[in-house]
Amino acid sequence: MKRKRGNLSELMQFAGKHKYLTYSSWVLSVISAALALVPFVYIFFIIKEVIEVAPDFSQATHIVFNGWMAVVFAIASIIVYFGALMCSHLSAFRIAGNMRKKTMKHISELPLGFIGEAGSGKVRRIVNDSSAATETFLAHQLPDMAGAVATPIGMIIMLFLFDWRFGLISLVPVVLGFLCMFKMAGPKMAEDMKKYNGALEDMNNQAVEYVRGIPVVKTFGQTVHSFKKFQGSIDSYYKFCVSYCKKCRGPMLWFTMLINSAFAFIIALALILAGGEAITQGVLLNFIFYVIFTPVITTALTKVMYMSENGMIVADALERVHSILDLKPLPEAVNGETPQDNSVEFSGVSFRYSNAEADALKDVSFKVNAGQTVAFVGPSGGGKTTVAGLISRFWDVREGMVKIGGVNVKNIKHEELMNNVSYVFQDSKLLKTSILENVRLSKPHASEVEVLNALHKAQCDDIITKLPQGIHTVIGTKGVYLSGGEQQRIAIARVMLKNSPIIVLDEATAFADPENEALVQKAFKELSQDKTVIMIAHRLTTVRNADKIFVLKDGQIEDAGTHDELVSSGSLYAKMWRDYQTSIGWKVTARNAEVEMKGGAK
């Protein structure tokens, strides 16, 4: 959706009552800019008096007074500017904080699949870095902008007040500098800023995903291939930065040279006015004053240049924030219906991820009766995790209907749906807080006794025993860390505390070692009592006892039945089972060979 407001009005939407601090910072900045020019007037009086009384400088009786007045106005300018920055910073911090809060609140209302599709690295950068960019703009750029507008107005008045000829010649490098700056920071720069932030965002996202995948990378030794996407994002960022720097090199060189060369134009004019004869007192006075005064032009123009650049950064940051805020939450049922039982049914379901070229699911239909344990298996990319996500309404289907207890999930209120379905991810995350609070996430008002009971059922007694403060131990601090399998058991305890009638297990033992996997399987057995359980798995031993197994391939159900029925049918599942048995046999043989080699070495 195209934003119609300007950057400033957009930012003020997040400011609330603190926007008056922003306005106050502008007023104070303008006053500070005006006060900063006054000392130059007193400097002019000092120079004038010195030239007029030369060589008898004892007659210069007003130098001390004029000097002190220059100091007083300079200090006053600094104090007022400090007040402007205090106001702008207080407002900027509140606006950035409100922007983060509003964005995070909106993210919490978006479909649960949003983070998975967007990438956690990209979302984190939008929430943190984009709001930080606006903070810099509000805290420094806006007050400087007000001062930068007031300063040139005052400067132009002063330039022409003392000697219009020197004033006019002083503006020549200013005009030329502006032309160079426009070439460098014109409309094309806005597009370049988008490309820059896009490249940085992609690199950040790839870095997060790469770091998360390091355990798998190290396990399978895929160092070069796994690094390819991350390396590609770094190369793209590098190429853009080098290309952009080369493009700006010429204009930046000319801009810097021109805005610092005003004195050269002034010298040339002074020589022309002298006409080869002795310079007059008036020309000498104005020449000295303008040589001292014109460096202010450099400072003012540099601020203007950086303001234009930061304005583009803020515009891009706001656009990225709105890329989240403009996303619509899934429609909430007005008068929510209550599921009649714990059954799950897909009826002609088709689904496609955003920006994908093909459907992830194509006309999928099946029914899981209340209390059944079913499993979804099949090749990677077949649609297993998509099925699990649609049951929890991570997304809405494109065609067909997903039902829980005979009710379309679209007609079930979000809170009611979440109370009916619990989801165990393959890589569950724990927050940096105590075990107690991590488990309580599913039931905030649960007592410690309830939490301990859930932890016991999830086979977590050994974890709690070894921790220094038991369930009150904070995870991730002072060297207290848990393995992947241990974290998964804590996550299962969280689900047990919630006690939902429908459980979705998405590769929940994927990262567990054999010892933890055995404990997790015990926890699953406890968890699944009197529940409807949907399991997504690659390890076929974990699903062989399921009431029914669905084989998914290319987004469609290829076969369905019990383990024995599918093995005897000679279908895709039978081939997968043979391959799995072969891989187990290979592992056993490899271990035996390793033992024999060690025995021979002895």
Number of helices: 22
- Report low-confidence residues grouped into runs of 5 or more: 587-595
Radius of gyration, taken over Cα atoms and rounded to an integer in Å: 35 Å
Total number of beta strands: 10
- Judged by helices, strands and strand pairing, the structural class is alpha/beta
Helix fraction bin: 55-70%
Integer average pLDDT: 79
Task: Characterize the biggest β-sheet.
Answer: 6 strands, mixed
3D shape = elongated
Strand line-up of the largest beta sheet: 6-7-8-3-9-10
Give the CA-CA distance, first to last residue. 73 Å
Strand content: 5-15%
What is the topological layout?
Elements: H1 7-13, H2 19-53, H3 63-109, H4 114-118, H5 120-162, H6 164-185, H7 187-212, H8 214-220, H9 223-226, H10 228-259, H11 262-274, H12 281-293, H13 295-325, E1 344-351, E2 361-368, E3 373-377, H14 384-391, E4 399-404, E5 407-408, H15 414-420, E6 421-424, H16 435-440, H17 448-457, H18 461-466, H19 484-498, E7 502-506, H20 514-527, E8 532-536, E9 548-553, E10 556-561, H21 563-569, H22 572-601
Parallel strand pairs: 3-8, 3-9, 6-7, 7-8
Antiparallel strand pairs: 1-2, 1-4, 4-5, 9-10
Helix pairs in contact: 2-3, 2-5, 2-12, 3-5, 5-6, 5-7, 5-13, 6-10, 6-11, 6-13, 7-10, 7-13, 11-12, 17-19, 19-20, 21-22
Task: Give a brief description.
By secondary structure, the protein is an alpha/beta fold. The chain has helices spanning 7-13, 19-53, 63-109, 114-118, 120-162, 164-185, 187-212, 214-220, 223-226, 228-259, 262-274, 281-293, 295-325, 384-391, 414-420, 435-440, 448-457, 461-466, 484-498, 514-527, 563-569, 572-601, and strands spanning 344-351, 361-368, 373-377, 399-404, 407-408, 421-424, 502-506, 532-536, 548-553, 556-561.
